[in-house]
């Protein structure tokens, strides 16, 4: 019998019931025969820091944080990774033996590794990348593309002012174009990435003409319900390479699991099926 104390981690958010992280981490714990637990915790915003401090005292290895704590997590951290600073938000906290908080953002890693797990030779260095949206997910994708050496990134967003703010944040390394020019810009893009909520639950769709999706492009959608959004279906019909959002969700969780539980977990078909239930 294993008499060692179980390893503990959690996800903190508000709301939290929709989070698929507990299912994913507990699946990996079981698969790897690790004595551990990963718990969802709904936290009132005013209690965030106190809850973190008490989890550290109780011996938790770390936590994921989601909306609305991605910025607060940076503020209470003793140290932040460069990519978390660059994105301006954290999603993964690791508690060190000295009881310090190390904040990281694994969304950029998840975005890149998900694509590379499907298309090993993919690189955004050549050609231009079009990102739809200018929220938190867009910031992670921009940081990811820049870190992979991309030097042509175009952001379009319904509210252009938000995209202009990102341009300042990323020191003019991105270009901002109008939402009205979506078709024209898409037609000359090598990568097209949807980071907006358009297409979620099939309740809305991206107003793009299928003909403007280049066959040679890699098309990625961060929405994963449904797994194949209308946008990805259009791209598949055009014979473009496609990447779904569930893979990014899985890949962004890998570094946290490794830090807290000591093993590198893998993305499997079985896990994808469990997460889509
Ligand atoms: P996340 O953290 O997932 O990026 P977010 O910060 O709330 O979420 O950003 C949501 C993105 O989806 C924004 O780019 C938003 O556009 P606006 O900045 O104009 O709000 C985009 N979005 C949401 N609903 C949209 C819609 N109906 N049409 C176009 N864009 C939409």
Give your account of this protein's structure:
The chain is an alpha/beta fold and 277 residues long. Helix content is 39%, strand content 18%. The chain is built from eleven helices and twelve strands. It has helices at 21-31, 48-57, 70-76, 82-87, 107-118, 136-147, 160-169, 182-187, 230-237, 245-261, 269-276, and strands at residues 7-13, 36-42, 62-65, 79-80, 92-95, 101-104, 129-132, 153-156, 175-177, 191-194, 218-221, 241-243. The strands form two sheets. A six-stranded mixed beta sheet has the order 2-1-3-5-6-4, with helices on both faces. Strands 9-8-7-10-11-12 form a six-stranded parallel beta sheet, sandwiched between helices. Helix 9 links the parallel strand 11 (218-221) and strand 12. It is globular and about 60 Å long. The two termini are 33 Å apart. The site of 2'-monophosphoadenosine-5'-diphosphate has 15 residues, from helix 6.
């Amino acid at each position: 019998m294993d008499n060692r104390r179980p390893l503990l981690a959690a996800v903190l958010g508000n709301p939290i019931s929709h989070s698929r992280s507990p299912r994913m981490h507990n699946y990996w714990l079981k698969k790897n025969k690790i004595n551990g637990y990963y718990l969802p915790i709904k936290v009132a915003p005013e209690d965030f820091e106190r809850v973190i401090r008490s989890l550290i005292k109780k011996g938790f290895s770390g936590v994921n944080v989601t909306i609305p704590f991605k910025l607060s997590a940076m503020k209470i951290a003793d140290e932040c990774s460069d990519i978390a600073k660059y994105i301006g938000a954290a999603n993964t906290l690791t508690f060190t033996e000295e009881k310090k908080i190390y904040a990281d953002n694994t969304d950029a890693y998840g975005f890149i590794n998900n694509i590379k797990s499907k298309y090993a030779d993919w690189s955004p260095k050549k050609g231009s990348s079009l990102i739809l949206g200018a929220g938190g997910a867009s910031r992670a994708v921009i940081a990811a593309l820049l870190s992979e050496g991309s030097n042509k990134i175009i952001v379009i967003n319904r509210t252009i002012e938000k995209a202009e703010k990102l341009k300042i944040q990323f020191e003019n390394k991105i270009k901002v174009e109008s939402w009205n020019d979506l078709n024209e810009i898409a037609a000359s893009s090598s990568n097209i990435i949807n980071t907006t909520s358009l297409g979620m639950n099939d309740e809305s769709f991206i107003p793009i003409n299928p003909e403007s999706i280049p066959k040679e492009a890699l098309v990625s959608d961060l929405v994963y319900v449904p797994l194949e959004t209308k946008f990805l279906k259009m791209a598949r019909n055009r014979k473009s390479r496609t990447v779904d959002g569930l893979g990014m969700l899985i890949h962004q969780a890998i570094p946290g699991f490794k830090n807290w539980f000591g093993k590198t977990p893998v993305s499997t078909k079985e896990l994808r099926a469990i997460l889509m239930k």
